[in-house]
Write a structure and sequence with these properties.
Elements lengths: L2 H6 L3 H8 L5 H16 L3 H5 L8 H7 L5 H12 L13 E6 L6 E6 L1 H22 L9 E4 L4 E4 L2 E7 L1 H8 L8 E2 L2 H4 L4 H12 L4 E6 L1 H15 L4 H4 L5 E4 L8 H7 L6 E8 L2 E6 L7 E3 L5 E7 L11 E2 L8 E8 L6 E12 L2 E8 L3 E2 L6 E2 H15 L2 E10 L8 E10 L4 H15 L1 H7 L9 E4 L4 H8 L17 H9 L2
Parallel strand pairs: 1-5, 3-6, 3-7, 7-8, 8-9, 20-21
Antiparallel strand pairs: 1-2, 4-5, 9-10, 10-11, 11-16, 12-13, 12-14, 14-15, 15-16, 17-18, 19-20
Helix pairs in contact: 10-11, 14-15, 15-16
């Protein structure tokens, strides 16, 4: 008896609701919009902006200002100190710790019980729903899921309120029944010392029947390699014969795809991307053949979008979902059931379809290089690296890039620090292909590279083994949801990386 087939019938009702995304997207989003305003109308924030009198999206847009973390930080500080009913009516006891801002090492984002239920956990259920719809022969529930997450700690010395990686918050609050089909144990999953955690996870899961993985590709790869080294096996399906899917997110999968094909060789393995950020769960890949993700529009999130060219302007254009165009880059703005209102999360996306709305992540509003007007974004970088790898036989493990504003010869260029899992046949040829691909993808980059006048050919510094691991360790950012900064418009990150590259 295939227990997965029996359980999957429970998900069929949800599939019918998701099908409405194609024809009723505007109505669905407006329903979410009204629900959020109604719930928050008696909070301090709701009273300040008189949510009770808001009748339309235009009212909301004209009355409520766009927010960054700097604007909401005073409210977060008060929430962490114990005040309530500020941004959202229910008690806020959890704070998702995310990468910091210019002024802070970390951001602390409020997490309500509603957002856990109607955003994050619903997202987790939906990705399984869509996976089973795509793979009817699945035996997903015949074994266990390995979830690789972070840790948490008391908030301001209070055991009643905790801060931590979103993944740790989700594990801490998960329905106890889910623990029956999940590994490792909660105690191991929430360990805060990364290298000890990897060893404990390996010891606790090697002999389990693992059918699915969830986590960040870079950190999951570290775990997989450790397990293979520990067991002496050549591929992961020798350890877990029934492994069939990896739900991944947090960083782009493209640089890791080839490496995963080497450690998981089964042609029955599937990969599904999810977009589950500290601020909310936004998207799920719903088709193995299409890398774009479905925008999840009936969660506790109302979406707005700023055209990339307007980001940073005093009065940027802001659009609702019905107003977006395909193949244009937008900065994502959200209002959520955790009390984030018109909050700019810093990610950029591009829609590939609008029936239903599907998108790809193209980068970060702050993770780009525009030192010379070239407007290079992460999406360009990922595609350029993929092309260079394909033509030189290379595999990129990690990378980061930044501008060289002017060297001793008054020359400007981009400098890339790349740690290769497999070296290219020629670093010089790799650099040339990367450079030419970036020209092809980005007309602004091409214009600045014209005849080497404004911008010289890019430079590649080959990183020693484990450079990025050591750099992250030095910053106290091993494991969890921490990410290597891919592109930076200044040299703060890259200088410290180069200093360690000895």
């Amino acid at each position: 008896m295939n227990i997965t087939k029996i359980i999957s019938k429970v998900f069929s009702t949800r599939l019918k609701e998701i099908e409405l995304y194609t024809t009723q997207a505007g109505e669905i989003q407006f329903k979410v919009f009204r629900h959020l305003l109604k719930k928050a109308e008696n909070t301090e924030w709701g009273k300040m902006y008189d949510y009770k009198s808001i009748k339309s999206y235009e009212d909301f847009k004209s009355r409520v200002p766009l927010q960054t973390y700097e604007e909401i930080k005073p409210y977060v500080s008060r929430l962490r100190a114990g005040e309530q009913n500020l941004l959202w009516p229910s008690e806020i006891r959890w704070f998702a710790k995310s990468s910091g801002t210019t002024n802070d090492k970390s951001k602390f984002l409020p997490v309500s019980k509603e957002s856990l239920k109607d955003i994050h956990y619903l997202g987790g259920q939906d990705v399984v729903t869509m996976y089973l719809a795509n793979n009817p022969s699945s035996k997903f529930f015949s074994g266990k899921g390995l979830i690789l997450g972070g840790s948490h700690s008391p908030n301001l010395n209070s055991n009643k309120s905790l801060v931590g990686d979103l993944s740790a918050i989700l594990i801490e609050n998960i329905n106890p029944l889910v623990n029956l089909v999940r590994v490792p144990t909660k105690k191991v999953a929430l360990m805060d010392e990364w290298e000890a955690k990897i060893e404990a996870i390996a010891n606790g899961t090697i002999n389990k029947n693992v059918t699915n993985l969830s986590g960040v590709p870079s950190w999951m790869l570290v775990l997989i390699k450790h397990i293979l080294e520990k067991t002496g096996k050549e591929s992961l399906e020798e350890v877990w014969p029934n492994l069939e899917v990896f739900f991944h997110g947090g960083v782009a999968f493209t640089p890791y795809r080839e490496q995963y094909s080497q450690v998981i060789k089964s042609d029955k393995m599937h990969y599904m991307e999810t977009y589950n950020a500290s601020e909310g769960y936004f998207g799920t890949q719903n088709d193995f053949a299409d890398p774009a993700m479905l925008l999840m529009i009936d969660y506790g999130i109302f979406y707005e979008f700023i055209p990339l060219e307007d980001v940073g302007k005093e009065n940027p254009r802001v659009l609702c979902l019905a107003e977006v165009e395909l193949d244009k880059n937008y900065a994502l703005v959200i209002s959520t059931s955790s009390g984030l209102w018109r909050y700019m999360i810093g990610d950029t996306i591009k829609f590939t379809n609008n029936r239903p709305y599907k998108f790809v992540i193209t980068g970060r509003t702050k993770h780009f290089i525009n030192a010379f007007g070239e407007e290079l974004i992460v999406d360009n970088a990922e595609k350029g690296l993929a092309k260079a790898c394909a033509e030189t036989g290379a595999q990129v493990l990690e990378y980061s890039a930044a501008p060289v504003f002017m060297d001793h010869n008054a020359k400007c260029r981009h400098q890339w620090v790349i740690e290769f899992a497999k070296m290219p046949d020629s670093v010089e040829r790799f650099a040339s292909i990367l450079d030419s691909t970036l020209k092809h993808l980005n007309s602004d980059y091409e214009a600045k590279r014209w005849k080497d006048i404004a911008l010289q050919p890019l430079e590649i510094i080959v990183a020693r083994k484990d450079l990025f691991h050591d750099w992250m360790a030095e910053k106290g950012k091993l494991g969890g949801q921490h990410k290597v900064p891919r592109l930076s418009n200044n040299r703060a990150y890259i200088e410290s990386m180069i200093a360690l590259n000895k």
